[in-house]
Amino acid sequence: MSEQSADQRHEEQLRGGATTAGVGAYLLHRAKPHLPPWLGVVGLGIAGTAANLAWEDSVGAGVGLTLSSVALTAATWWAGRSTSAQRRLHSAVTVAAGSAWLTGAALCGPLSGPLPDLYAMGGAVAALSWNVRMVMRRNPDATGEGSGDKGLLEKVGLARTRLGTPKIEPNKLTVPYALPAGEATNDDVSRALPRIASALDVPTTAVRFRPDPDSARKGELVVVPEDMLREVIWYPGPSAPGGSIAEPLVIGVYDDGQELRLTLPQAIHLLVMGVTGSGKTEAALDVMAEVLTRRDVAVWLSDPKRGQDLGEAFDACDWVVTTQDGAALMIAAFEAVVPARQLWLGSHGYRSWEPAAASRQADPAHTCREDGTACGCPGMPYLIGWFEEAANTLRAVDDDAFTGIAQEARSAGASLVLSMQRASGYQISTDTRASLPSALCMGVDERDAAFALPSDVLEAGANPGAWGNKRPGYCYLVSAGIEEGLWSTPSRTFRNNPVTLEWVAREFAPVRMPMDAVTAEAAATVAGQVYTDRKGPQGSGGPAVEDDDVRTGEPMVDPEDAGIDPSVELPEADDADHAPMFAAVAGTTPDDPKAAMEEILRAFEAEGRMVVQTKDFMDYCDRIGRSRPWVAAELGRLGREGRLVPASGHKYRIIPTLTPA
Q1: 172-199 as b/e, with b when 16 or more CB fall inside 10 Å?
Q2: Which terminus of the chain is less hemmed in, N or C, by CB atoms within 10 Å?
Q3: Directed axis angle between helix 401-408 and helix 324-347, to 10°?
Q4: Whole-prediction pTM value?
Q5: Nearest to 388 by CA among 537, 496, 272, 544
Q6: What is the pLDDT of residues 444-489, one digit of tens each?
Q7: CA-CA distance, 340 to 521, in Å (whole number)?
């Protein structure tokens, strides 16, 4: 049987029926807790009378009783060293007074001189003082002063803090507190958290606090004494198979057993951060596996690791790139699709994306027709731009490449997911970091913690720097839609593996909707054939990347070269072999510089190379009979005409054109 609390015992003492017997039982229950001091007084009188009969006028007994009184008082003081100062003093005074009266009664008689009066008045006062103390001990508003809590709070610099009634849950203690007015603030509690953890002998991540948003001195202390996250939990499977991306993604558990839920449309843009070995890859597998089981979402994936971790998801993504140039092109395409998606959503009466926008528009409230009848337009899926190893991408593009997208994408039904090992000031600008409002932070270097999580979350007790790579999967999730008190609560993502992604990509292919025409056309205006010639999730063999797909294991041979025997000697060259590679466009002459340059650009587009460098053009100078100054001048002209736009470094991005130049 579990031990009853003082309140439970008190309630039982108040029980009684309405009959005479019940009233008597009630009075007896009310009196019982207060009887021990009075019984002690009665016992003292009996002991004094008996001692007088045995030792009256005995000098030896007088000396012995006096020494015994002193010894008993000293023992009481020593035994009370672990209690509060008030209780220790009260006990010692009571024992000293009682033993002194007993000595006088034994030697002179209990009815001699003032002894009867001292017994009657002193005994009653002593008993009543203990009764009062018992009543005050039940005060539900007790502050912790006069108990062992006071010593702990004094040690950590929070003396005179009032503690409320604690809430006890399995492996969790929540205690309301109120700091002394005008003497301390919640910032003092934040600074005291490591000392509280030390006093309780628990890890620093086991103690946190939740400040009251309406008070500068009130809040709750939360202590989780046992690390319940040590046990590995494997990914249990899709939390909402075939559901909407607007429903939460369940990716792990908190240390109190609650599900770790991430809702991407509420999170808007997510930074996934963690050092090598911190479990960041498994967290990505959890999120990606959940995303790809939803019906109304499309994913663009930039993976410089070329499928090492997320390769099994390639077939389920609408577009995949694996190089820095490809990532830069995807970012530019993302910038182009945001206004196009905003225009479509606005014309159909949506202030922002919602699940209804992904369905065929059969509701007159969401029509683009002026007559107000249902337009029946195909729906628009939510778009996620996922950038693995985003630090590599940021080195290849402008530092603030994501800032503009992040500020506009929410209303367009699009989110960015940036995964990187260190979100420090050396890797990502302050503006870009500020545009990523949500964070899934694994173990990090202590120096990077301030860049990974908001300051108020760190002040509340979050400490990802304490994990590093020693606690794989441990994380903090900061996102809109999650109770703020959980932002500083440790959690752990599910254990996962690529086999899950392979299964999800295959089994949920019929569920996922294709990319809408509006987004696809806007992307094609920037990426051209790199996007239009991709093999999307509904195509054969999965989406194409912008470089050779080495995962297939097939020999990389062009179809027209399949019949060539490499062991046969090459034929003698003839004059035709020295003809320029690029012929003039019909209706022009070889001296037409615009036609020659346009042929080069279209050749690049046919190869799927939408990001090129100056040296790529220089390689063809001799073949087209042009000088290097001519190429430089033509690049300037194309830049002014908008056919080329600067990319990172000395690179240019080709802007597709549907008509000949």
Answers
A1: bebbbbbbeeeebebeebbebbebbbee
A2: N
A3: 20
A4: 0.63
A5: 272
A6: 888 788 888 888 888 888 889 888 888 899 999 999 889 888 998 9
A7: 9
